[in-house]
Design a protein that fits this description.
Length: 257
């Protein structure tokens, strides 16, 4: 019988974001978040160590097969809301899949473990490079105040046109347009850096509406003045108004870095 081997795979989402509220998720006894099953093996126990500076509200385990994602379990009761050890059996694994562990502590942080089924003579070849980490983001601008959240990514938001937000690259930041194919296809820090370095710079991003709620599939690339690379997937904006704040535009999505 072939001994179990562990190999590298792409990281879907992870705990190591620049958001100080992000939880830390680490799979136990696994290298590069990928496991190859042995011949005849169809069950696997996912063990993960989770820590969070903010109290955890829930830990969700999901199984992703192709385009389908099914929730396996959701834990909402913790003896220690800042530290948790997950041990979850995934049964009847007959095809390659990903097990996604998501932690909600006010910020949703997730990490994925890829499981490869046994194939004759098939060792998993590790990808070259460091896997990307993913986290959620929220940008917001109220009235004439400067936008918040954007400076984390070397950006500035101090003005709008009559119809759109004007989000600009701060001094020393390189801002570029990327694609939805980049969002799913770029899986390592090295490939992200190469994509951003090789793309043409733009001075501003102006696709967000300031007049109505919208959904987006915009993907941006950023290299900050400090040399940190981000891929930013803008997915949604909402517009609200009140007599005190004026108009508030909120932009949400995910980043990979």
């Amino acid at each position: 019988m072939l001994a179990a081997t562990v190999a590298a795979s792409s990281l879907f989402v992870s705990c190591n974001s620049n958001d100080s509220s992000a939880a830390n998720i680490a799979f136990d006894n696994v290298t590069n978040d990928l496991v190859q099953l042995t011949q005849g093996q169809t069950d696997y126990v996912v063990n993960a160590t989770i820590s969070s500076s903010d109290n955890m509200k829930s830990v969700t385990v999901s199984q992703e097969i192709g385009s389908l994602t099914n929730e396996v379990t959701k834990i909402t009761s913790f003896s220690d809301k800042n530290n948790y050890h997950l041990s979850q059996t995934i049964s009847n694994i007959t095809t390659d899949c990903r097990i996604i562990v998501s932690v909600d502590n006010g910020v949703t942080t997730s990490r994925a473990l890829t499981i490869k089924v046994y194939t004759d003579g098939g060792d998993v070849t590790p990808p070259v490079g460091s896997p990307l980490t993913t986290a959620s983001f929220t940008w917001e601008r109220s009235g004439t105040s400067a936008g918040t959240g954007v400076s984390d990514y070397g950006l500035s938001w101090t003005s709008n046109t009559a119809s759109n937000a004007t989000i600009t690259a701060a001094s020393g930041t390189k801002l570029v347009n990327l694609t939805t194919a980049n969002w799913t296809g770029i899986t390592t820090k090295e490939d992200l850096a190469a994509a951003i370095d090789g793309a043409a710079s733009i001075s501003q991003y102006t696709n967000v509406s300031v007049t109505s709620n919208q959904l987006y599939t915009d993907v941006l690339g950023v290299k900050t003045a400090g040399g940190v690379y981000y891929m930013i997937n803008v997915t949604k904006s909402t517009v609200t108004s009140d007599a005190i704040k004026g108009t508030t535009i909120t932009v949400t999505g995910q980043t990979k870095s």
